[in-house]
Design brief:
Order of helices and strands: HEHHHEEHHHHHHH
Number of domains: 1
Distance between the termini: 29 Å
Largest sheet: 3 strands, antiparallel
Shape: globular
Radius of gyration: 18 Å
Strand order of the largest sheet: 1-3-2
Strand content: under 5%
């Protein structure tokens, strides 16, 4: 199978999986799926926040190690990201809700699980070469967006909260939407020395989830404008991760 055909097939499978229906133990109308998803995320967004400081510290330590030692710690970073995606796939999307009983956001769970398995493959046979070289200035635009995702300055009511302590205990590392743009941003900074399948699948699923979240602003009660703003890193960086081969080629031609 040609490489382009294989890539297209993977993306089509991911797109189809993203539309898998939400499951709940108690009956509900499919029109109420956003409400089920909201209840699941309300539960899961706080369930594992106690892990957040650990993930923040480990992430910073690994980024410093990458800067100092490059690919000598690359496999450790790959394993860490694989663990994060596998953990997030299940922890974010399965919950016992008050209204619907046990509920599963199946589409997100399956697609993020597939991304996690691609990262397991990358950890087993590393292709990411974490060597940071001087890049054209325009390629560093991802950094402020990645920092915003890492910080995730938002409170429980989805309003702005610029408490600097959130740099240590925000939902980064335990929730999908703030975690993924940081990982993709890192891959774009070492492009083209990356596992292209991992970059594409991670970016494609990130874009799908980001766009679904943007739609939630219009259909999910209680979804604030600030929450939408905080999903712009996921949308923009994921789209960039898909387009970077074209953009880099164009700027070097």
């Amino acid at each position: 199978m040609k490489e382009r055909t294989k890539t297209l097939l993977i993306l089509v499978v991911l797109l189809i999986c993203s539309f898998l229906p939400v499951f709940a133990a108690l009956p509900f109308s499919q029109q109420d799926s956003p409400l089920v998803i909201k209840e699941v995320l309300m539960k899961t967004s706080v369930a594992y926040l106690w892990l957040s400081p650990i993930v923040h510290v480990v992430t910073v330590v690994l980024l410093v190690a990458l800067y100092l030692y490059g690919s000598r710690v690359g496999r450790i970073v790959d394993i860490f990201f694989a663990i994060l995606f596998l953990f997030i796939a299940f922890s974010n999307h399965i919950a016992v809700t008050d209204t619907y009983g046990l509920a599963v956001v199946t589409g997100n769970l399956v697609t993020i699980l597939i991304v996690g398995l691609f990262w397991v493959w990358e950890a087993y046979r590393p292709q990411n070469n974490y060597v940071f070289e001087r890049l054209p200035v325009w390629r560093y635009w991802v950094l402020p967006f990645a920092f915003l995702a890492f910080w995730s300055p938002i409170d429980a009511q989805l309003n702005p909260d610029f408490n600097p302590l959130l740099l240590l205990n925000s939902s980064f590392g335990v929730m999908y939407c703030p975690t993924t743009p940081v990982i993709i941003a890192l891959l774009t900074l070492i492009y083209p020395r990356v596992n292209t399948h991992v970059l594409r699948t991670t970016s494609f699923v990130g874009l799908i989830v980001g766009l679904f979240n943007a739609m939630s602003y219009f259909i999910m009660p209680g979804y604030t404008l600030w929450n939408l703003v905080l999903h712009t890193p996921l949308i923009f960086i994921s789209l960039y991760g898909l387009l970077i081969p074209i953009l880099v080629k164009k700027n070097f031609s």
